Amino acid sequence: MKSHGYVFYIARAYRSSGVVDSAGIASIGHAWSGGMTDVDAYIFPCASAGCPSPQAQVDATVNALKGVKFGMIWLDIEVYKWPANHASNQNFILALGKALDGHGIKWGVYSNLNNWSNIVGSTWDALKDKQLWWARYNGRADLGDFQAFGGWTKPNIHQYSGDASGPCGFKIDQNYY
Asked: Which of 6, 38, 123, 140 could cross-link with 1 by S-S, CB 3.0 to 4.6 Å?
């Protein structure tokens, strides 16, 4: 991947179905050995009824990442089986963050205005001091065109393309930072 100009990789470490993503975690080691200079992980939380608690999801992820080098963990907050109650969703996300803090792990948020508004309400800004990985597939590798939400006035990373054709036949999401 590095020979194709890619230096940053973010692997899924936890699935929205409520289980650790073993393949995603294994790919972290491959990313480092492939020459990546920055490698992070993300949790796609399971937020519907019957899912493990936020603490259990974080604990499972952290346990699976033991011995694996990574920079930080991103909480993937996008519309997928979230309850309709904003306050409940806010508390769920805060509990995920508290669990990560308890493990001493640096973390940030992956979302966009539409997802954030639908899940927690556009004005909820309790995480405004966390880094934001902003998703907007506009095909532009820049940080422009950002519309503030959740207290963020600018993103740290912009995911500008999804399912692009990458090297070696892989489909990749492209990001700018």
From this structure: 6
